[in-house]
């Protein structure tokens, strides 16, 4: 057998960016050789993208542990309490659409670097914030950066990886949001234990600065997306960046030559920007990417941020009148321990999603996950009918099922689908819009949860979320577009 490796079909037509990323090698006699492994550069891009999702989980869910301390230091009323809880989510809402779409204009790499620099700047500022107002501004600024990361990190991974493993790679990176959530809760608990003071929340945020700086530097050393360059008619630059992306020893492919497809595309003069999202050909994709994600975030962020509060109020045996710092810290520690246990199921759920997304498909998992979320919330709602150990068991069983099913289904799949259903020329804009629309739901729950928990109680609130979960399953089914194994160039 010859040692020379090449392609089985040597015709020159149809050589696109995805062709080379997906290409399988063949020996000279036509026998298929083992598929090439991911290159070092592809893994570097994956790890640098992982970091953004980790930081999101870290700061957003750590806010749940920090919130009682912040409320005490700044003497927050119910409305201000809601603003602090929703400020970073509102920033994500704005950042995903206002900044995420910049990657379609300026390139994936530039925006990938910019977003983390913005995150670090506000993260450093929050440590020395002197007032409630500046605290809200800093949380909003961090949210802007994290919102920009929603579409950009997805595209950086998906546009550099093979079609048949894209779902698992994107979701495994996304899963580090759950790792960040668990780590943030545990870190908050450790810091509270080492420094049981009202200022401990500042150390929680400070702990992320050095890791973020390391990741920021690393993002300078990746290639620009060849997909983005080719879509803009810059094929020769795309070839250079593709060679960097697919650099192996021994070299494969040995030569990269992208066909000039821009001439054909330019005759169609496709719409770009937000106008293209609402065009008839993209409307179905827009609804599928946006509405179920909105409904999912109503539950995930509301439950995620305020789980410590719910647990402390229902099963934590907290001191009812926490008039001093010692009582406040005690309540916060009780809630943090319970939250860390529940958050583990977020990680288990997304691990299951990683293995199943490229096998069962995105739509099937999303529908199944929404139904499972509704069941979990229903179980938790039943806790109001009991006292003692049974109440505790129902709360934990319901929230554990919810956390598992949301990351197996809608929390993972909505993120994945939003970065796959739009054409390359508007992929960042479309994914950013979907993330922004979703975060309207996150902001609503984060702001209204403290008020609604007081006015209508936990049980009614949980039943409302049961209804939104079932609605998410229906909309996913009726507007379904399956993207499992589909090339990103299939427009």
TrEMBL record:
GO molecular-function terms, A-Z: transmembrane transporter activity
Q: Which SUPFAM superfamilies match?
A: MFS general substrate transporter (SSF103473)
Keywords in alphabetical order: Membrane, Sugar transport, Transmembrane, Transmembrane helix, Transport
Give any Gene Ontology cellular component.
membrane
Q: Which residues form the Major facilitator superfamily (MFS) profile domain?
A: 45-484
Q: Which residues cross the membrane?
A: 45-71, 83-102, 111-128, 134-157, 169-191, 203-222, 340-357, 363-381, 393-410, 430-453, 460-481
Report membrane topology.
Answer: Multi-pass membrane protein
From the Swiss-Prot or TrEMBL record, state where the protein is found: Membrane
Q: Which Pfam families match?
A: Sugar_tr
Q: Member of which family?
A: Belongs to the major facilitator superfamily. Sugar transporter (TC 2.A.1.1) family.
Q: What is this protein called?
A: Sugar transport protein
For this protein's source organism, the top of the classification is:
Bacteria, Pseudomonadati, Pseudomonadota, Alphaproteobacteria, Hyphomicrobiales
